[in-house]
Amino acid sequence: MELSVKQIILVKEKFYKTFAIKLFTIILILFVGIQSSESNEKIKIIDNLKNIETLEFNFIQISPQTREAGICYLKRPHFLRCIYNNENKKELIINRKNLVIYHKKYRKTYFYPVSKSFFSEILNVEKFEKLILNSNLGITDKEIKIKYSGENKGDIIFFFDKQSFNLKGWEIIDVYGNQTSFQIDIVDKNINLSKKLFLIPEIN
User: Fold this and answer.
1) Is the Cβ–Cβ distance between 80 and 123 less than 8 Å?
2) Residue 2 — pLDDT band, cuts 50, 70, 90?
3) Mean pLDDT score, 87-93
4) Spatial distance between the Cα atoms of 31 and 177, rounded to a whole number of angstroms
5) Domain containing 149 — which CATH number?
């Protein structure tokens, strides 16, 4: 018995409706799965960060004009000291609200507010956690990328090891479009670091 035109149209409408529902369900499942996976990775990164009070790490800093290297000591939530291996004997020191660039060779000190830099988030676990949760996450074969845009700070991408969830470094594009990368290699963690290490030098 041949189907009428009306019956054929109803069969097609039912088919397309069923197909659309199944397609939507598949897309929804995939989306929820991706969101769940991203959330799990972020939680693992945050859990690892919460277990770190101090760090010693080697670094390589690359900007359009220079390539510098050295060693850093970090003590949460207020302290950082990076000693550069260059002829100016440059140091970057963070002591609470002060960010200082110190040129030991010339005994010159330049002060900046920490709040204007991403170090205010990196040093403070609670702020870092909030940043991670509100950022975009990407995963490659070797690392996890966390991209965040800071108000009046520019954009920053953090790189984390995919296995250990340790911080590997970051890349900053400031509000003027200048790009700087900071690669780190952790030497040790949760070691005893005296606050005296982070004292700002007095210039007479």
Assistant:
1) yes
2) low
3) 93
4) 33
5) 2.50.20.10
